[in-house]
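Predict fold of Fumarate reductase subunit A; 579 aa.
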Amino acid sequence: MSNLKIAREIDADVLVVGGGGAATRAALSAKQEGADVRMAVKSKWLKSGSTATAFSELLSIAAAIGHGDERDHPEIHFSDTMKSGEGFIDPDLVWGLAHEAPDRIFDLIELGLDFDKQQNGKLVQGMSDFATYPRTCRVNGVTARHILNILAKRLKELNVPVDQDMMIFDIMTDESQKVIGALGWDHAAKELVLYRTPAVIFACGGSHSVYKYGVGTSEMTGDGYAMAYKLGLPLVNMEFVQIGPAALFPSVTLLSGPVWKTNPILMNGKGESIFANILPEGVSVEEVYQHKVFPFSVSNVSFYLDTSIQREMETNPTPRGGVWYQKRPGTDELIESKMPKTKRVLKSKGIELDDDKFEIGLISQCNNGGVQILNMDCETDISGLYVAGETAGGLRGPDRPGGNSLAEGQVFGHRAGIASARYAKQLGAKPQPQLGASITLDSYNSWLQKCANGTKSVQEAADSVRAIMHKNCLVIRSEQRLSEAWNFLCSLESELQSGEFYVDEGQFYQAVELNHMIIAAKIIVRSALERKESRSCHYREDYPEKNDNEWKKSIRVRCVNGEMRTELYCWPTVRKRLG
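Predicted 3D structure, encoded as C-alpha cells:
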C-alpha cells in the first residue's frame, strides 16, 4: 500500500461527527448561532444509526410539560431521574435536562413536528418507567425518526453540508490541548480528508456493533468512545449496557415490555420451555412476563427471562443460535392491544405472528455510559471538543428512565451546538493542522508498512470481537467469562498493532474500525470486571447481590501512558448551582 496522503482539505467552524438526533440538533443549533458547520456521517445520513432505525412500542421523548398531568413539572422529572441513577449521574446535568427538555419539545413543534395530540390540542403524554406522572411524547409510533427528519429538513433548507460515508478517526490537538483539526476517511472515494476546524462535536452514538447482534446499524462501533479514550478523556459507567430480547432474523426487531404482556411460548432448540426447572417456587411464567420491560434487569423476576434465553442459547440453541418464540393461542385481542406496531413490523419482515414461530435472542440496544462531559455545554478537558447524545456520559447510570434518551439528544445537542459555535467564533482565525496531520500520518504509514506482510483477516477479527462479547459480556457475566474476553481482546489488539493483519488501501477503513471496536469492547469488559456486584443491567453471577456500601459509585476508565486504567468516581449528591 502506498503512503496515506491528504486528498482534500475542508474548512469549518464546527465539525459535527454523527448523523442522528443529537448530531443533527447540534448542527442546526450551531448553524443558527452563526457558525460555518459541517457534518461527517460514517454511513448514509437518515438511513443509519440509532435514531433513524429506532423502534419500540414505547419509543418516545420525555419532557415535563404537564399536558398528561398538570402536576408534572421539571423538578419532578429531575427527582425521578435522580432516583433511578443517584450515585452514578451528575445532578447538574440532570437538572438541565429536566428543565430544558420542554423548550426543545416546543422547538420541534415550531419546526413543524406533529406530536400526537389530545382532542383539546394538548400533547398526548404517556407513562414510562421511573416516572411519577405521564411525560413521554410520541409521533405516530416512530418518534425518533420523525424528530430526525424534521431537523434534517431545516438543515437542508440552511444548506448545511453533510459528508456521507465519512469516518472521522483522529482528532488533532496542539501543545495546549486545543482542537486544531480532524482526519476523516471517505470510504466511498477511498481517500483521506483533513478538516481544518477548531471545534468538534462527538455525537456518533454508541457501540452496539461490538456485539454479535445490536439495534441500529453495523457502523456503530464505538468510534467516539475510542477517539476520546486515545485523547486521554475519562469514560464512565461503561459496564452498564442495555441488553434485551429481540427477533434476530431476517433483521433485528426489538421486543419491548408490552410484547411480553401477551404471554408468548418460548422454547429451546429441543422444543422444551426455557423456564423448565428454572423458576423458584411461587414464581410463575406469567409473573416474569408481567414484570418484563426492556432492557434486562436484576431488579425483579423478569431477570429469569433474559438469563434463561442466554443459557438456552448456549446449551440448546435453535438452528441459528436463539430460542423459539411462538404466539400463545387465544391471545389475538391481547396482541392487538399490546403490540400492534411490533406485529406490523414483524409482518413487514416476513414473520406472521399467527402462523410462525421465529427465533429470538439477546441484543445490545444502548450504552448507558460514555465520555464524561464537564457541564451543560458538553465540554471536555480538550478545548474545542464537545460530546453529546449516547456518546456522552454522566446522565445515565445503571438505569435510564424511558423517554430520556431522545430528550438528552435534543437538550445536549442544542447546548453543544451553541457552545461550539461561540467558541469557534471567539477564536477567529482557523487553525493550521497540517503539521499535526503530517505527524499523525507518519504514525499510520509506519503501521501500514508493518501490515504489508500481514496474513490475518481484518473482517474475521471484527467478527471474533462480536462473538467474544456475545459469549462473555452479555447478560450473564463472571470473572471467568470477562477475563477470557479481556485476554482475547488484549491479544487481538497486540496482533493488530504489530502488523499481523493484512491491510491495504481498500481495508484501511475496516482496520481503523477494528481498532476502535477493540478499544470500546475493552472499556466495557474492564468496567464489568471491576464492578464486583450485580446492579440493574449488570449481572455478575459470581457476585449476585447489590452492594451499595462499596459500589454505589461510578467506574471511570481512561488511557494513562498507553495503559487502560480504572478508578472509582463519586458524583456530587446535590446540585452545585442554585436557581
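The chain is about 35% helix and 15% strand.
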